[in-house]
Amino acid sequence: MNKGRVKELLKKKILILDGATGTELQKRGMPAGVCPERWCTENPEVITAVQRGYREAGADMVYTCTFGGNRLKLSEYGITDVKEINRKLTVLSRQAVGTGVLVAGDIGPTGRFVEPFGDLPFEEAVAIFKEQVAGLVAGGVDLFVIETMMDIQEARAALLAIKETGDYFTIVTMTYEPDGRTLNGTDPVTALITLQSLGADAVGCNCSAGPEAMMEWIGAMKPYATVPLAAKPNAGIPRLVGKTTTFDMDARAFGAFSKPFAAVGVNFLGGCCGTTPDHIGALKRALEVTPPIPPRRKSLAALSSARGHVILDRDKPLFVIGERINPTGKKALQQELREGKTSLVRQMSREQEDQGADLLDVNVGVPGIDEPLAMKSLLRALAGTTGLPLVIDSPKVDTIEAALRLYPGRALLNSISGEREKMEKLLPLAARYGAMFILLPLLDGEIPETAVGRSRVVRDVYRAARRHGFTKEDIIVDGLVMTVAANPDAPIETLKTVSWCSRSFGCRTVLGVSNVSFGMPERKWLNAAFLTMAQAAGLTVAIVNPANLELTAMKKASDVFLGKDQGAAIYIESFRDGEKTEKKPAGGAPLTPSEQVNQAILAGNRDDIVGLIAGLLKSDAGLSAARIVEEFMIPAILKVGELYEQKTYFLPQLIASAEAMKKGLDHLEPLLRAAKSRGTSKGVILLATVQGDIHDIGKNIVALMLRNYGYEVIDLGKDVATKTVIEHMKKFKPDVVGLSALMTTTMIAMKDVMELARREGLKTPFILGGAVVTDAYATSLGAAYARDGVEAVRVLEKLLKNLMTSCHHKGK
Amino acid sequence: MTPLFFESIPVTLPRPAIYRRLGYRKESTRISPGQRQEVEGYIADAVAMLQLKGSSLRLPIEVEGSALISLPEGNAFVSRKLARFLKDAREIILMGATAGTTIMEAIQADIGGRNVTRGVVLDATASEVVDAGLDWIMGYFRQSLRREGKTLLNSRFSSGYGDFALENQRLIHRLLQMDSFNVTITESCLLVPEKSVTAVTGIITSV
Fold first, then answer.
1. What domains are there in chain A, each with its CATH number?
2. ipTM of predicted assembly, 2 dp
3. With an 8 Å Cβ cutoff, is B195 touching chain A?
4. Does B77 lie at the interface with A, CB-CB under 8 angstroms?
5. Comparing C-alpha atoms, which of A256, A259, A174, A254 is closest to residue A221?
């Protein structure tokens, strides 16, 4: 079966796919929990009857009953001959439908997640699918369908397995959650970009949703599709009634969606769970004379990651490639790459994304490291960190190949030049994995100085690229930025190159902008001016550091003037906050230095508190450290406690204020000591998280609060042995002991501590806290209880007051 | 009995849950734009540090009597409440997830005095994200079970709840091979790094 037959059919009509197999088999006696593939080989009359039913209903294609026919799934039932069972089931399908109906070799998920999302190595996944593909080919399938995929990487592995076996028409359908994303976070357009560029002949969706939602997804994909689109919706949204999953949509209602589906551009339409031959018959009747809408594009300039995409529309604002993930001149990053760590890379990716990058350049060029390995490690780390598509930046063919094979999206390769030997290696590589590439107009050992020379190289490389199926949509020409310090004409030639690409040749362009100012003073102005000129010349993409405020501001301004920022919406959104100044209320008097200290604590302003206190000490008010604390800081922190209890403040505000207070107190400490007014604390508190418990965040917050209120805190840490608490009680004679525990299993240790203390004759009061500890539990042990840091302060004050009263009475 | 490993669980950031955990109440809490920006910045820091991984294992069970849940290879859980929870199930899913060590190290350093405000935000973010990780694993199974005519129970049960003793976490940790993604268990059956969780849910036949 060649691809041509399917393609010819698609020109004439919307092809009708079959309906559900699993639910039909269950209706006809297949018990729950069996292996459907084996059951069908043992009950061939049942599967052939189901498939004949679909043929008779009008299906142009049936799927082999091999959804779980891969080694991993079959091994759960002890089946090892993968090829044979796939072959047999294909033969049964052919027997059922004959040659007039297409038989698609059905490939479903393995049930394991593929790297970088799971532990199944990518190459192992490809090998597993190849084994199944071999069986399906042996049985004589006409084409393949990879379906119900929730992991784009697994879909890629299956597609590569087919492509590396032979030239078969392949449909890939993903399954989306109600929010329009796969469980792994891939949306339909992103999946489309990745799969069609990798060589899928049709892309679409199946299962998990009814026709209404699926129609929306097909509609979203159609404008960007270079391939036909497929849909296999369920018979409505599955509903669990008691223990029964029901699908409410009958054949007539299902069939009513046929025309709307055709209108949004579906090219293959069938049914998934809950559908029957009647549902398929309804589709057939409705679509008999409806012409298909072919794909609207031949190619698409777009890039994708596993969870996002960028369509490089030339009418859109300038796109930015974040350049920071490059170890050149960055010692910390070099070190990290050498050690195989990725936290800095993840941080850089997150920061650049926040700063507005559209794509991230990834370069691992550190002397002496295993580059392919480092690149794969970065791709794994970034797959879970960013939704931005990546630019694979390496001069090494093996690094590029490793990256393109593993990358779970459509990457931009940086770069392919006119250097003959590398071009011959890299063009087929980029074509195999469907990557876009940056075309660098330089030849072996020579950088053409003029735009004319560069355009000649662009034409040559493009001519070679076309032989591998590339179009102008797949390339971005680098205008080659040279420093003005070395050659005053260089920037003009670069701009001419950009202009020629944009206006004559008709392709996108990219520049590494900052090279233009190398060796010059105040580089930012040169960079900004050059960027705006390049934008005016038609530049599509700039490689810059998105943290560079001058460049990003100029870019946004130029986008407005070039009509690429409709209604200046992006510009206004970006700079709206910049126009807001910290205005005082009209007529309001400015705050006094003491009020500023008070306000800094209320607002949790840790950056300014020390400066404000220093200013207050130096001011004419002549305030002592003790007065500043008593009159302005303590009232502020008391107010914060109140606001927290009223839930006007939430925890970060409470803690920020406590930290501001602590910073202020630390600054005043020498003065307070000198004045001896803080030499005696309000009391000594011993704190510990009990034995066996390692959760001490709450206890640490309590310690911070208590110190701010003038208590001396001895913090023993977490997982503190009972006897250690007792030893410290004896040694330091605290006024109160505070114990914390998070778990029900560890809070019993509180009782142990208290009982041992009593046996040792220690009468110190205890205060307990922690997620599972309740007032009732504390009371049952004879201890006080505090829900949080604020309450702990109040309870302690009460406890100490009672203690003093009791001592006073005893003293009497 | 090889678990299914998830190297990078892509959860959507559960922002409302993070704010709720930090004590934010829509009707009463007031945050200045600067404070919100600070909290959002810390949440972004947390996201950059999170390495949400997990594993799961599908196992047949037999509920015997009122409290015994027998697992393959002679393993068992004893809990009346869990047995009641699993009364309609013939299979279970064990699941575990961790936020990783990087974020836990940052939380410890921040709470220890470096930046306590950031520490509490990182802590809340990690807690909620790791919980969302278990939601994601359940979502994965719901989808893959649909074709088998099965589904999951709506909720999950963790050791330490009711009479399902925390000690059971040791068996769950072992079966899920959580050591392989650097989650260890202490003598008192707590998971390390701290932002790691396990749970059990049941599979029911839905046809």
1. 3-287 (3.20.20.330), 302-574 (3.20.20.20), 593-674 (1.10.1240.10), 684-811 (3.40.50.280)
2. 0.92
3. no
4. no
5. A174
